[in-house]
Amino acid sequence: MLAIIGGSGLAEFAGLAISHRRPAPTPYGEASAPLTFGHLGGRPVVFLARHGDAHSLAPHEVNYRANIWALRDCEPLGIVAVAAVGSIRADLRPGDLLIPHQILDYTWGRASTYHEGPGSAVHHVDFTEPYDRRLRRRLCAAAAKAVVAVSDAGVYAATQGPRLETAAEINRLERDGADVVGMTGMPEAALARELGIPYAAINVVANYAAGRGEAGQGISLETIRQVLEEAMEPVRRLIETMLASDDHD
Ligand code: HPA
């Protein structure tokens, strides 16, 4: 089955034929919400709302270790994570979708590995390519098939939040090579890698990042909410098309 993590604007997955929900305790604590099991595009999926059912967990409060561990218990073939981002590039507009290929991590103080604490051996994972190449390719192919416009590569910068960035911070992220900025992509991607689960993301551009485009005068959170609400329909279509095109579960 495929696991889907829904971010801001996607606390529920419309169109998912739900069979049941199950609380998700793990050795790392409770996941953000009960897991929702169902079918999409005729295939089994498990869905998890990253910020909780009531969107009550800020990016730095999310228990990423519990979330990824809970999904691992479902033995998914992969995780598709949906996450809102701000765009640093003029040509990536609010409402656009991006399948990122690289990550810059500026987060701090988050529990970001399963390999720490008493008795745990030092463990390094290869993270050269943080997103699973095959899963990214399947998402891009499904986008073409579903006639959903996506950018097929980009560098995602993960910031700590929960505040948005300053204009100077966005300039710095651009100099570092970032295309989009969000708050939840890390340590999520690294934890999935530690557990050996193929992981890819769909970034939904909610706004121009601070100081860019119409965000030059500040970012309207109400506009972000509206943009995300509208952008979730193509996101759903994209994932559904990918599942319906799969030749296995
Ligand atoms: N910055 C960080 N995270 C975000 C933004 C942003 O501008 N928009 C949506 N998530």
TrEMBL record:
InterPro entries: MTAP, Nucleoside_phosphorylase_d, Nucleoside_phosphorylase_sf. One of its GO terms (biological process) is purine ribonucleoside salvage. It catalyses: a purine D-ribonucleoside + phosphate = a purine nucleobase + alpha-D-ribose 1-phosphate. Its EC number is 2.4.2.1. The keyword Transferase applies. Pfam families: PNP_UDP_1. Residues 2-243 form the Nucleoside phosphorylase domain. One of its GO terms (molecular function) is S-methyl-5-thioadenosine phosphorylase activity. The record marks E165, L221 as: Important for substrate specificity. One of its GO terms (cellular component) is cytosol. It is an enzyme of class 2 (transferase). Keywords: Glycosyltransferase, Purine salvage, Transferase. Phosphate binds at S8, R50, H51, T184. Substrate binds at M183, N207, Y208, A209. Transmembrane segments: none annotated. Pathway: Purine metabolism; purine nucleoside salvage. The keyword Glycosyltransferase applies. Although this enzyme belongs to the family of MTA phosphorylases based on sequence homology, it has been shown that conserved amino acid substitutions in the substrate binding pocket convert the substrate specificity of this enzyme from 6-aminopurines to 6-oxopurines. Purine nucleoside phosphorylase which is highly specific for 6-oxopurine nucleosides. Cleaves guanosine or inosine to respective bases and sugar-1-phosphate molecules. Involved in purine salvage. Belongs to the PNP/MTAP phosphorylase family. MTAP subfamily. Homohexamer. Dimer of a homotrimer. This is Probable 6-oxopurine nucleoside phosphorylase. It comes from Candidatus Accumulibacter adjunctus.
